[in-house]
Write a structure and sequence with these properties.
Number of helices: 4
Largest sheet: 2 strands, antiparallel
Oligomer: single chain
Number of strands: 4
Order of helices and strands: EEEEHHHH
Radius of gyration: 25 Å
Structural class: mainly alpha
Strand order of the largest sheet: 1-2
């Protein structure tokens, strides 16, 4: 017999190659979060897309507002255009990433790595 890796009690039970007694295994199981369901993953991905789209819309409105101020205020007009353009570009990239993540999940069943980690974090 070997010793439980948690409480050092004698055990024959192993979990992923690590010795663990029944009591420690049951206690660990009680603390585990339930796995994310398909609907939770889909909802998380849809929410991410909605938020990214909203951010892109706000950035587009800000860019249009800056571009609508002609002639530009002298000292910082060019910098404001660069900042608004950069913000819009970043927001659009985030929106496309969110769209691709949702599309990959719905079309091919690919769960994004960060959501896999959330699911498996409760299992360790």
């Amino acid at each position: 017999m070997v010793q439980c890796s948690s409480c050092k009690a004698e055990t024959d039970l192993y979990d992923s190659g690590v010795p663990i007694c029944i009591e420690c295994s049951n206690a660990r199981d009680a603390k585990r979060k339930p796995q994310a369901t398909e609907s939770q993953i889909r909802t998380t991905l849809k929410d991410g897309l909605v938020k990214a789209t909203a951010r892109a819309n706000v950035a587009c409105d800000s860019f249009n507002a800056v571009m609508g101020q002609f002639p530009f205020p002298h000292p910082n007009g060019t910098q404001r255009i660069h900042n608004a353009s950069r913000e819009l570009s970043n927001a659009r990239k985030e929106m496309m990433t969110a769209h691709n993540r949702l599309n990959d999940y719905l079309g091919r069943g690919i769960v994004p790595e960060d959501l896999k980690l959330k699911r498996s974090a409760g299992q360790s």
